[in-house]
Amino acid sequence: MSVTIKDVEHVAGLARLALSEEEKERFTEQLNAILKYAEQLNQLDTDGVEPTSHAMPLVNVLREDERRESLPIEKVLLNAPDEEDGQIKVPAVLE
């Protein structure tokens, strides 16, 4: 498969890009070089290779959920910039 100047003009039109003749020729050459490089993948022997979504196996590295006591409210409020009625007071986000 190769890209023609007509293809570049079509895509440029879809993207609403105004390209000069020099740019059209340059992009045609560059896109064809990319496709030629990608065609090298067809030479690889992939028989017996299982399809994957990731190159490395994914492992859940999160800890197990375990129930435990929360911090006492007094200790939590020590870190709060401001406190009112046992709750953390923050600046209003609505006027």
Automatic annotation (TrEMBL):
Protein source organism: Paenibacillus mucilaginosus 3016
Annotated coiled-coil segments of the chain: none
Quaternary context: Heterotrimer of A, B and C subunits.
UniProt cross-references to NCBIfam families, sorted A to Z: gatC
Entries under Pfam families matching the protein: GatC
GO biological process terms held by the UniProt record: glutaminyl-tRNAGln biosynthesis via transamidation; regulation of translational fidelity; translation
UniProt keywords, alphabetically: ATP-binding, Ligase, Nucleotide-binding, Protein biosynthesis
Signal peptide feature range: none
HAMAP family: GatC (MF_00122)
Function, as annotated: Allows the formation of correctly charged Asn-tRNA(Asn) or Gln-tRNA(Gln) through the transamidation of misacylated Asp-tRNA(Asn) or Glu-tRNA(Gln) in organisms which lack either or both of asparaginyl-tRNA or glutaminyl-tRNA synthetases. The reaction takes place in the presence of glutamine and ATP through an activated phospho-Asp-tRNA(Asn) or phospho-Glu-tRNA(Gln).
UniProt GO molecular function: asparaginyl-tRNA synthase (glutamine-hydrolyzing) activity; ATP binding; glutaminyl-tRNA synthase (glutamine-hydrolyzing) activity
Protein name per its UniProtKB record: Aspartyl/glutamyl-tRNA(Asn/Gln) amidotransferase subunit C
Key word Protein biosynthesis present: yes
